[in-house]
Structure formats: structure tokens, C-alpha cells
Write a structure and sequence with these properties.
Length: 119
């Protein structure tokens, strides 16, 4: 799956963007986007996208490549000081301690994920 964002993404440009999903061949309006600005340089920036199907995607801003992290997501946020993501996924709390590892080896992503359920 590839995602493209037509406008440059900066910390000041976080309004609703037009997002094109090549997989579905449709255009979607997304809620506010969450840009990780706390860690690394501008070339290492990542963006969380929660689409209307409640799928959580991680977009590498410079490479403009997109990876689906989870489905059935109610909300997701970056940590204030570290490059970590927390999300409510199917009534469970999921935390990715280093979601950027997906750009190196996708198989390592599950090893950096913690899921907590009260059930």
C-alpha cells in the first residue's frame, strides 16, 4: 500500500489533508494528523494517519512510504518526549516502543509492541 500527501508536511501544516489510497483507488478525508517532531532530524519525521476505516498508518515523511500498524483503532498519539506510539486498538491499549523499526525490518515491529487488555 502506498500513501501520498500532496502538501508539504510541517509542524505548522497539520490541517486536514487529502489522502489517496492506491489500494482502494479512492480519496479519503482524514482527521487531524499526528506528526512526530520530538526526535531525530526532519528527514526522520514520521506521521500517524487514522483513516475513516479506523486503520492506523505510519507514514515516513521523507520517503513518502506508508505502513499499516493496526486496524480497529479508536485513537492514537505520539509520546511527548520519545518516538513511541500509544493507541486504543479493539478495546486494548497498544504501545509501540520504536515504530520506526518498520523502515529497517518489518518483522521486528511486533517485538517492539506491548498490548494490555483487562479481559
Amino acid at each position: 500500500m502506498t500513501c501520498t500527501c500532496p502538501a508539504p508536511l510541517t509542524p505548522h501544516n497539520t490541517h486536514v489533508q487529502q489522502l489517496t489510497h492506491a489500494h482502494h483507488l479512492t480519496s479519503l478525508r482524514t482527521p487531524p494528523l499526528h506528526l512526530n517532531t520530538q526526535s531525530g532530524t526532519a528527514t526522520e519525521r514520521q506521521l500517524l494517519i487514522l483513516d475513516r476505516n479506523r486503520d492506523l498508518h505510519l507514514l515516513h515523511v521523507r520517503k513518502r512510504t506508508c505502513i499499516k500498524l493496526a486496524a480497529m483503532v479508536d485513537s492514537a498519539r505520539w509520546h511527548d518526549e520519545a518516538p513511541m506510539v500509544a493507541a486504543v486498538v479493539d478495546c486494548k491499549v497498544a504501545v509501540w516502543y520504536h515504530p520506526g523499526v518498520v523502515w529497517t525490518d518489518r518483522d521486528l515491529l511486533d517485538q517492539t509492541k506491548f498490548v494490555r487488555s483487562d479481559r
